[in-house]
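A reminder before we start the practical. When you read a complex entry, don't treat the lines as separate problems. The point of joint prediction is that each chain is placed relative to the others, so the output describes one connected object in space. Small molecules and nucleic acid strands, if listed, are placed in the same frame. In the example below there are four entries. Take a minute to note the order of the lines before looking further.
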Amino acid sequence: MAALDLLGRRWNLRIVWELQHGPIGFRALRQRCDDMSSSVLRQRLTELLDARLVAQQPDAAYALTDLGRGVFQALRPLARWSDAWASALSEDGRD
Amino acid sequence: MAALDLLGRRWNLRIVWELQHGPIGFRALRQRCDDMSSSVLRQRLTELLDARLVAQQPDAAYALTDLGRGVFQALRPLARWSDAWASALSEDGRD
DNA sequence: GGGAGTTGATTCGATTTCCGAAGCGGCGGG
DNA sequence: CCCGCCGCTTCGGAAATCGAATCAACTCCC
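Here is the predicted structure of the whole assembly.
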């Protein structure tokens, strides 16, 4: 339930999702997340740091931990579902 | 990405999660969701109704559609991960 | 019919969160 | 030295969320 709370917070899912491509700096990560507000990004990052989903490397770049990668794995079915969802909605929309 | 946006909104994940047990009325659903604000619950429900994840039955109870059940299925790996996460955090926390 | 209880749903003021832009100190290259 | 980039912070306004009161409709019981 705590997981649903943490990941249900705006941007957290997205951040983990964008972090899949490997370590990335603060500003670059922000860009990937639709230029979300830097203050909120910092806040979300500390939450994720806290939750051990994300770690900060010596060079200050952010990266997924093993746990974080686990979330990403667990998220893949959701990604697959979103395709089905999209096509269901579009089918629905056409005449 | 739209999926991450929809499900990243507060309570949406939780609502789908609580709806897994079958059709349920507005007030009962609200109770299950930590007595969340009724105004927000209504707003979330219309979003989910819109997205075809939830449907309203003739007797006004809310239930997951096929798509909604799909989300729930897709969420199960996440639930499994949350167990691993919890134990990782507790191991970390002891002495 | 009248009153009490429940239901789904709405309204509204207060609080929390989020946003966006500006700015901080630090660091490297020209 | 100066300029640009970096991670990060601050702050005022906007938006989302909350919480409690409230509504109309429906049921049950008398």
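Discuss with your neighbour: Chain A touches chain B through 35 residues (CB under 8 Å). What might explain this?
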